[in-house]
Request: fold
Amino acid sequence: MTTLTSPHDLLAAVPFLIGYHPENSLVLVALSDDAIGMAMRVDLPRDVAAESFDLLASHFQRESADGAFLIAYAQSIDEAEPVLINTSAALMRVGIAIRETLVVSDGRYRSLMCTDSECCPPGGNLVPDIDSSRIAAEHVIAGHPMPFASVAGLVQSIAALPSAGDQEWLAQVAQFAVSPDDVDLNQLQRDGATAVIDLAGEYQAGRGAEDRELVARVIGRLSDIQVRDFALGSHNDETTNFYWAMWRELLLIAPAGYVAPIASIFAALAYERGEGALAHKALDRALVDDERYSLALLLRRVFTAGWPPQSFTAMRAELHPKVVAGIFG
Reply:
């Protein structure tokens, strides 16, 4: 993340950090030796116990943060001020310094730490246009997409396409579904794992989802937990962008009943990439498809507990060789 040198920079960076322009939100940005770390967004708390603010602070403590930016997107300063005070107090209790606190309301922002009326007038300053900001230019040059206008846009970006409901497509996927009682279970698992690698190769070659039978094979075989766990750990630093594109597209076209495994894998990868809001929305899709899907429920607990993404990456990398051995011997 680029260096943030002003409130303008901070306000321009927040939508990139969480993936969309927030409303009615409390955003916390972690700092470690002045480097930007984890960003958290929660609904603007109202009438909550002090322990809830301590829980937020514990996530930053686990992240080894030494500083924090706080931004409240609220209807008014009166609504936001107690939230910022309580959050600041909880962070300072665990030794985290508050570098800036901002309130954004009705297109204007104010700093609660600045006492200079010339740079911080009582009526606040206009929120800068993100499109013309230095932060946006740096992100676009680096190949990052512009943030969505709202959380609704984020949700729509991973919503099912109309083609996902086509009955012929469902039947094609269903013929590759795996039952735990299949006589040739291990052979089907090998076929599924191989199909995942083959399809990722198609994306790496720039062909994407052109081979519809291969796509159907991957989606259908992911109904097996071993194949799903193989898929969860099959990317590395060199191939992650191809897998990211693959899982996103498969999430859009997977038929009902086959969404949960793909949505869970996509959520895990999004979390590792620092896209926490997108990760949670992907889990929403998984649990709509199957409200008891165990991996989605597990990932929800992991993400909510604030596990550092690198810890999750390490756990996934440790598990993958065991899954490979289980499938291929």
